[in-house]
Amino acid sequence: MAFALLISHELDAMIRQEWRLLPGFGSLSDDRAADVFNLLHVPLFGLIIAGVMSRSDRVRHWTVAGVELFLVGHAVAHTVLRGAEDYRFEAPVETITVYGSALFALAHLAVRWVPHGRR
After folding, report:
1. Segments in the chain forming alpha helices (H)
2. Structural domain for 23, as ranges
3. What is the count of structural domains for the chain?
4. CB neighbours (10 Å) of residue 17?
5. Which residues of 54-88 are buried (b: 16+ CB within 10 A; e: fewer)?
6. Quick one: angle between helices 30-52 and 57-81, nearest 10?
7. pTM of the full structure
8. Which of 5, 45, 54, 101 has the most CB atoms at less than 10 Å from its CB?
């Protein structure tokens, strides 16, 4: 669920021009920045999907944990950037996708890291 919410958020990020908040995009025109922002998600999502589908338990475990930690940090970044001039995200979509994905990620992390004998 957390990954699905992230994908939905990235669709919204295209509409809200999220690249304006990211370092390294300031020297690009909006059209070029949108293309780069969009295309960077192809290998990113490809690697995540490959990691989750890996035959290796270790690769799957660390891929999921890495994505979940990213989602928590991503929600923190949205909170910090909320006052920025180019911040265009709005509730309820932001609340559901950004903070919802972080909530699912935190819940899953908590369940995964509880020792098996304490569940």
Report:
1. 2-15, 30-52, 57-81, 93-94, 100-113
2. 2-118
3. 1
4. 16
5. eeeeeeeeebbeebbebbbebbeebeeeeeeeebe
6. 150
7. 0.89
8. 101
